[in-house]
Prior knowledge:
The chain is of the alpha/beta class. Helices cover about 40% and strands about 10% of the residues.
Amino acid sequence: xxxxxxxxxxxxxxxxxxxxxxxxxxxxxxxxxxxxxxxxxxxxxxxxxxxxxxxxxxxxxxxxxxxxxxxxxxxxxxxxxxxxxxxxxxxxxxxxxxxxxxxxxxxxxxxxxxxxxxxxxxxxxxxxxxxxxxxxxxxxxxxxxxxxxxxxxxxxxxxxxxxxxxxxxxxxxxxxxxxxxxxxxxxxxxxxxxxxxxxxxxxxxxxxxxxxxxxxxxxxxxxxxxxxxxxxxxxxxxxxxxxxxxxxxxxxxxxxxxxxxxxxxxxxxxxxxxxxxxxxxxxxxxxxxxxxxxxxxxxxxxxxxxxxxxxxxxxxxxxxxxxxxxxxxxxxxxxxxxxxxxxxxxxxxxxxxxxxxxxxxxxxxxxxxxxxxxxxxxxxxxxxxxxxxxxxxxxxxxxxxxxxxxxxxxxxxxxxxxxxxxxxxxxxxxxxxxxxxxxxxxxxxxxxxxxxxxxxxxxxxxxxxxxxxxxxxxxxxxxxxxxxxxxxxxxxxxxxxxxxxxxxxxxxxxxxxxxxxxxxxxxxxxxxxxxxxxxxxxxxxxxxxx
Length: 546
């Protein structure tokens, strides 16, 4: 990122990505008006998506034109070939009809006046029409884009002003010299998702998992191939971080297929748009939303990697006692935590791996038969690692959370050079992270690397987080410990890391122990004497008052 420039004003363009995101957010926030938070979110993110597909289309169209001219074709020949949908879809670009393109909307940001017997159209109506046109032209987007821009509670004047801002110089979402074409909009989209999650509070947790938590899952699992699955995918953050991880370390994600399911219509739409923006195929999200417990859309597929952040302690869920997924026991009707865990385990291939965000209570609960289910899962040697996370990572909930990591095979092989059969790694990361503000904590890159490097050292596998060489694992008191299944059984199958990692070693300050005891004893006695003196002063003052 270039050096920070002076803050953008009406006369200057945002010169850093942070300023760009902040400028767009402030402008978008003016549109809030009387809209509910969920509708406001759909309006803004839908608009950002439309800007991207239009910019990407214009960029690809210019490339086709240049290529055909280089072959010696004239304008008439180019006109016959330039609208071939395959020339766009084959490059991951959506086809955008003329009246859905940003240039057309920007030209008519104040709407269309009535003329030649035609009724006047607001800018909101033009955007709704554009959304319809894009979905008709690109079947994979059917039912995905919002058509809510022409409603009474959407301020059409401010909507037009927002169109003007998005259209201003420097706000193009296509290739800008470095990186990939989607990077800029992808960051803006994710930034907006995070801002909306914060604004919506508890509801925000339904569609957004903090990026630092997702990065821990990705850096530990390192999903670089095969099928990646999320049974409650929210806005698709697990898939986006997977794609970014692969790009950072290996290049293009050509050997990964994503599969997900989401029970809420509006959240499913967010996920479809988010994946499309990042160039990730959306076919694996199915053609509609749906509850995973009611109907698993991917029941015929086994997955190489599963990452999920299920709703914590879900009480109202579709429970069928005879469901074959309950291999380790029927989960209680009052809590779906172990339903999610068993569903995820049922999806893994013979060497599959999974990472799941869970409420801390899942590590030690014995209510409703959950203790017996946990014991069977541990005895099946499916748990590879447990991570206790710091508090306040989730603005949407005060519930402390942990990470469960599962592996079908912990022996020596492609997944690691150390046989960890019959062992579980416990990591207590509660002291890591930094406060973003008074209400929210985040994990720094070095915190994420510390967790991932510890896991990969334990497993004997290379870590992409910081690429340590020949890093050997060793228990660290207060932070990590490798524990046998026998010891876990002796602890009644509790999986709380603090139970196993112990206390951190005290630093040796060089003071002899006898001298330290003598010094501390004197300090304590002196404190007692001072307390007694102050007590007498207070008694004397109270006597004078009475």
